[in-house]
Design a protein that fits this description.
The chain has about 325 residues and is an all-alpha fold. It has helices spanning about 5, 25-55, 60-90, 95-130, 135, 140-160, 160-165, 185, 195-230, 235-240, 245-265, 270-295, 300-310, and strands at about 15, 95, 175. Pfam families: 7tm_4.
């Protein structure tokens, strides 16, 4: 038996369709995508610059925010440049290994974002429920360990996927009906038994979303209980006001996930472009709105941003 018969064969490259059925509108669709990506780059780079430059912001809350901004930069930059190349120049081809790398970064950094949002919920829990122990609990070494665990968990969970996909023969053609290399879309092209890939992908997604969201909800149950026990209404508003930006970031991340999941089950017969537009919305929405949420609702960030643009010559 020849080596070609016993070795899994993959194409040299895949072809990304973009948004199936809306190819004639790609140039117009690219306008809001490009605008949102530009906002994401400017907003998250500004957050990182402000937090890096101002020693007063080297506190746990802002260090976690810096992690979130860095993750959002990588997450959006993993897919948007190639997506815009498809829309503008019809550059649909992507190397097989580049596709696997894109998929790895996309899913890994989505998992990291979920973990950082959980860490930020823990930060708010300690700040409100155990304020006297805040500085002794959330020390710099602990924050570094949380960051390392965040990266390690994501990399460990996602590393098997590229190796699992390499072993398949892609007999259903090289055309991916999507804007980027998403795990499910790539698996659909593979021949052979793909049940393990499907089960593993679903299990990881459910594990991450359910576990992280459960602990976030538990944190806010304790926070709400602590806030309601405060003596004055002003103190309650002030305590819960520190959580507004984080709640906004949670809604920005998890709401598109829930909508996309519901769409896949309720509107299975909907046109493919509907599902792909929702997938793109899920990918681009958090990186775009997170800097706006924190810039508007967090006084310290807002003052630093205004200071950058309104600084007067002395």
């Amino acid at each position: 038996m020849s080596a070609s018969n016993i070795t899994a064969i993959h194409p040299a490259a895949f072809l990304l369709v973009g948004i199936p059925g809306l190819e004639h509108l790609h140039v117009w669709i690219s306008i809001p995508f490009c605008f949102a990506y530009t906002l994401a780059l400017l907003g998250n780079c500004t957050l990182l610059f402000i937090i890096r430059a101002d020693a007063a912001l080297h506190e746990p809350m802002y260090l976690f925010l810096a992690m979130l901004a860095a993750i959002d930069l990588v997450l959006s930059s993993t897919t948007l440049p190639k997506m815009l190349a498809i829309f503008w120049f019809r550059d649909c081809e992507i190397n097989f290994y580049a596709c696997l790398v894109q998929m790895f970064f996309l899913h890994s950094f989505s998992i990291m974002e979920s973990a950082v949002l959980l860490a930020m919920a823990f930060d708010r829990y300690v700040a409100i429920c155990k304020p006297l122990h805040y500085t002794t609990i959330l020390t710099r070494p602990l924050i570094i360990k949380i960051g390392m665990v965040t990266v390690t968990r994501a990399v460990t969970l996602m590393t098997p996927l590229p190796f699992l996909l390499r072993r398949f023969h892609y007999c259903r053609g090289p055309v991916i009906a999507h804007c980027y290399c998403e795990h499910t879309a790539v698996v659909r092209l593979a021949c052979g038994d793909t049940r393990f890939n499907n089960i593993y992908g679903i299990a990881v997604a459910m594990f991450i979303v359910v576990l992280d969201l459960l602990f976030v909800i538990l944190s806010y149950i304790f926070i709400l209980r602590a806030v309601l026990q405060l003596a004055s209404q002003e103190a309650r508003y002030k305590a819960f006001g520190t959580c507004v930006s984080h709640i906004g970031a949670i809604l920005a991340f998890y709401t598109p996930v829930v909508i996309s999941s519901v769409m896949h089950r309720v509107a299975r017969r909907a046109s493919p472009h509907v599902h792909i537009l929702f997938a793109n919305f899920y990918l681009l929405f958090p990186p775009t709105v997170n800097p706006l949420i924190y810039g508007v609702t967090t006084k310290q960030i807002r003052e630093r941003v205004l200071g950058l643009f309104l600084r007067k010559d002395v």
